[in-house]
Design brief:
- The chain has helices at residues 10-21, 39-51, 65-71, 99-108, 114-120, 132-143, 164-169, 171-175, 195-199, 211-222, 226-235, 240-248, 253-269, 272-284, 287-309, 318-327, 336-351, 356-380, and strands spanning 28-32, 78-81, 152-157, 181-187, 202-205.
- The chain is globular, with a radius of gyration of 23 Å.
- The protein folds into three domains: 3-207, Rossmann fold (3-Layer(aba) Sandwich), CATH 3.40.50.300; 210-248; 251-380, Zinc Finger, Delta Prime, domain 3 (Up-down Bundle), CATH 1.20.272.
- Helix 2 packs antiparallel against helix 3.
- It is an alpha/beta fold.
- The protein has a five-stranded parallel sheet with strand order 2-3-4-1-5, with helices on both faces.
- It binds zinc ion (ZN).
- Zinc ion is lined by residues 52-54, 60-61, 64, 66-67.
């Protein structure tokens, strides 16, 4: 992957390139960026740049034999450690058997999420994991000298899926790897990593894509219609993994609007039975859908605030405009932040594999409570 294939991130690319040019490549780095960001893609572009036989001051050449192998993820010095789970419970759990699927998944979407990856390896609800056995494999692989490139690279995707013994096992390697080794951990959950891991790695913060850059990726790399791409980039705030899921799961925006409309009406009317039924309905959907629904809800609430400030600035479809126009009196500066905070917390809990039924019901009660308190205040005044 060349840096040029990743839009934006100018300052960060410059920083990575200058580490190579100055010969100061920290041996253990932690690329931290949210889901659907360029963190993983950048780590691979960085490795490709270091290994390129003909690099320029801006990018790898993309055509030398090293670049060609890097671009297919088949370079013998490029190693991966990934969250996986048993296909066959009698074997030790490690990454190697999953590499063909990994190449397919990454080459299709370099900004993929753990949910998308889980689909490739048919986890069937099993939790993905980087096992202690895998940690042993990491250490073993890094003991060898590199085969073709000056450096050997180990990219550990989503170290937050390491269990404690795996994490502890690699600490020494992170601290003192063999010479000419670069270990890159790519995380979307920096706060959940052990401090001992964080303290042994150089932090590289990767910002989410902005809406313009995410739109560009969706149009250029996934042939999305520009207006649709822009809308999805907006709804997901630049999370390409989520935007792509929404794009490919069909025209869901109409369904999401209906559900959001019902949800807010039930919350406002404090209709407990309907809220229970809604939580059950949401619970039956896949996790990606649940995340999309919460992102969409946040998007709609943000758009309401935009509309309350200046109705010409909103980005809504006519149906969305119509609903929000009726509902906008209910979202205002006094409750907006609180409701957004509740929904964002629900999204975080979904991300941490919480029970969606309980999470949705709880957040519904919290939002109902905001509306109920307001109604009480109005009645008393
Ligand atoms: Zn090259």
């Amino acid at each position: 992957m060349q840096f040029a294939k990743i839009p934006g991130q100018i300052a960060l690319k410059r920083r990575l390139i200058s580490s190579v040019q100055s010969g100061h490549i920290p041996h253990a780095q932690l690329f931290s960026g949210p889901e659907g960001s360029a963190a993983l893609a950048l780590s691979i572009a960085y490795a490709q740049y270091i290994a390129c036989e003909n690099r320029s001051p801006e990018d790898s050449c993309g055509s030398c034999s090293s670049c060609i192998k890097m671009q297919k993820l088949i370079h013998p010095d490029l190693h991966f450690s990934l969250p996986v789970n048993w296909v066959n419970p009698t074997t030790s759990l490690h990454t190697a058997p999953f590499l063909p699927q990994w190449r397919e998944a990454f080459l299709r979407n370099p900004f993929l999420s753990i949910e998308e990856w889980s689909g490739y390896i048919s986890l069937d609800g099993k939790k993905p994991l980087i096992s202690a056995y895998e940690a042993h494999e990491i250490i073993k692989v890094l003991q060898y000298v590199s085969v073709e490139s000056e450096y050997k690279f180990m990219i550990v995707w989503l170290p937050e899926f390491m269990n404690l013994s795996a994490a502890n096992r690699i600490l020494k390697t992170l601290e003192e790897p063999t010479p000419k080794t670069l270990i890159i951990l790519v995380t979307r959950a920096y706060d959940s990593l052990l401090t001992t891991i964080r303290s042994r790695t150089q932090l590289i913060k990767v910002l989410p894509f902005n809406v313009a850059d995410a739109t560009k990726v969706l149009v250029d790399q996934f042939n999305a219609d520009p207006a649709k791409a822009k809308q999805l980039a907006d709804i997901t705030e630049g999370n390409i993994a989520e935007a792509l899921w929404m794009l490919e799961s069909g025209d869901e925006a109409g369904d999401l609007l209906d559900l959001f409309r019902n949800w807010m009406q039930y919350c406002y009317g404090f209709k407990i039975d309907s809220l229970v039924a809604l939580a059950e309905k949401v619970h039956k959907k896949e996790r990606e859908w649940q995340k999309s629904f919460l992102s969409y809800s946040l998007y709609m609430i943000r758009q309401t605030m935009v509309m309350n400030n200046n109705s010409s600035l909103n980005r809504l479809s006519p149906a969305e405009f119509d609903f929000i126009n009726k509902f906008r009196q209910f979202f205002h500066p006094g409750n907006y932040e609180q409701i957004v905070e509740y929904i964002e917390e629900a999204a975080r809990q979904i991300d941490r594999n919480g029970s969606s039924k309980i999470i949705f019901f709880d957040v519904s009660l919290l939002i109902s409570d905001v509306f109920r308190k307001e109604k009480a205040t109005k009645q008393n005044s």
